[in-house]
Amino acid sequence: MEFGLFMELSVPRPWTADSERIVYQNALEQVRLADELGFDYIWAVEHHFLEEYSHCSAPDIFLSAAATMTKRIRVGHGVVACVPQYQSPIRVAERAAVLDIISGGRLELGTGRSATWPELSGFGANPDDTKKTWDEFVRVIPKMWMQERFAWNGRMFSMPERAILPKPLQKPHPPMWVAVTSPGTEIDAADRGLGCLGLSPGGFADSEKKVLNYRKHIETCDPVGAFVNDKVLTVNFLSCCEDGDLGRRNGLKVASMFSYMAAQLLSAKEVLPTHSYPSEGLLPALRRESGSPGDAAKGFKGVTMGTPDDVADAITAWENVGFDGINFIHQFMEVVPQQYVLDSMRLFAEEVMPRFKTRDGASRRPVAVAAGAGVA
Amino acid sequence: MPLAGSLDIRPLIDGSPEVVLDEDAALRVDDVDILQVLYEVRVADRESLVPPALNPTIPPVISFLVYRAKESEFGPFALAQLRLTARSGVRPRAYLISARCDNAELSALLARSWGFRVTPGDIAMRRFHDRVDCTVSETPAGVSRGLVRTILDVSLVDPVPVTGHDVQYPPGMHLARIARDGVLVPRIVQVDSEYEFRRADRGRPSLNSFDSSAWGDDRLVPDIAVSASFAACDMTIANVRYICNPDIPASEGTEKVSDR
Description:
The complex is a heterodimer.
Chain A: E1 2-7, H1 19-37, E2 41-44, H2 59-68, E3 74-81, H3 89-102, E4 107-112, H4 117-122, H5 130-146, E5 150-153, E6 158-162, E7 176-180, H6 185-191, E8 195-198, H7 204-218, E9 232-237, E10 239-240, H8 244-264, H9 268-271, H10 284-287, E11 305-306, H11 308-321, E12 325-329, H12 338-352
Parallel strand pairs in A: 1-2, 1-12, 2-3, 3-4, 4-7, 7-8, 8-9, 9-12, 10-11
Antiparallel strand pairs in A: 5-6
Chain B: H1 10-13, E1 18-19, E2 27-41, E3 55-56, E4 61-69, E5 77-88, E6 91-101, H2 104-114, E7 118-120, E8 122-127, E9 131-138, E10 149-162, E11 172-180, E12 183-191, E13 193-210, H3 212-215, E14 222-237, E15 242-244, H4 250-253, E16 254-256
Parallel strand pairs in B: 1-11, 6-7, 6-11
Antiparallel strand pairs in B: 2-4, 2-14, 3-5, 4-5, 5-6, 8-9, 9-10, 10-13, 11-12, 12-15, 13-14, 15-16
């Protein structure tokens, strides 16, 4: 199993002149520690306009800082919004390449398309088109990285022949992923030979079905890049503490706050009748309709919270579902003290992580499978 | 924490309907046409749009939700609502600002059973091949019948088919008064409706006129067009199952009043 940290960079009100700096500093301290402790990934999201929920609108800059202060951890630039009104695919390829160079070839590129109305309408993007633009972005970005000069005449994006520079350090190119929240997106990921970056902590049965679907489809995929990334990661909440009650209490604080804040977001689907967004946005399992105002953290089994044994048991359950790794949301809206977050990470690395790794720190599962086919 | 509502409900309580909870109160209407048009509104103080029980959405979005039925147990009717997107805990909801209805008997039932803040109005919904138009007009109190004024003129333009699954009508949250322990107290009534769709279309919204003060909150000035939909369906307004104290967050102040 592989383990990562997922950074939303949420900033609770009341905002002071220093609020955002403190959140960013805390996050960078967590990244530095995660690198020392042997975590595999650090992911930073891309969100815009989402007050409190995420102030991470320039993740490549945050990750550049993270890359320069770390040596080993993989740098997850994701989920990058593959929506032309947000940014051209040229800019995604260029910035990702710079990040790959700065990090010494540690970039992972996560792709997606945004699901909230404030973001999509804020940039003037048409929610009906985002699946199409995402599809075109993921097909052109690896070509931009690999071809000396690149030209494209597509449905959503075109450009004359130009040299897109710099090129990433990793050859043939960095691994690519797709954020999976909407039902069926795991198949889109598999068909294109892209890694499955799960963002919705659903139930075991739903998750197993998704993983099986993904594994089945990726066997016959037509990769958009030069190789297949066949990893499937899920997301969970990490709170590891010798005092199991305190671990669960603090973990539930993070999970409840995350779920509550995610539920406040105005999803595109909620205000615009569209086939393009079949889910209810983020965390559909937690937002499933019922009559009452709801308990934000209810209904989510397999949370990685409590004593090291509790956490390990939960990870084993997810491993048995078929996941290759878990990205943890370990802090949100600064609801638990920074020192607790760091201690939880340390305990997890000492007591839990070794049970899922071989002695050299490698994941027990094979990683990316080379497809061999180059991209024309 | 997300922004919490701060609307001062005291001036609204006296005019709010008195709801009698009745587990048998359910209203089924077949062959209902529904027009829904959504606009973002730009308001500096977003919290002040909804009561403390609810959270405003960012950005705030108003919806014009119009039902028209050619027949029902109360005869033909049309009901036009002005609602505001909100959250009750983690659930998407729509806070009712006010409503107009052209059927007096039904209006009384809607107010008594579900807390619709409804006053008389003339509502016309017209379907064309390429658009659906709706106007709502009223005769101000003390003015002769000939001096009607239009308080809403809205359209869906260029409809294209979608599925009923694509259209969302969040449950309504209606400020009302309810007897609890023999005392009449302010409560927000959650109004759950079920829909069986036969067709649904989506189109561009077009707003020709809207008198926000006539609807009860002159701060609700439409800014950015969001969407418009039309649906034909059978509809049931279910009996009230949840009410909540308007003064405290719904996640803490909600009371279940029926298991049905």
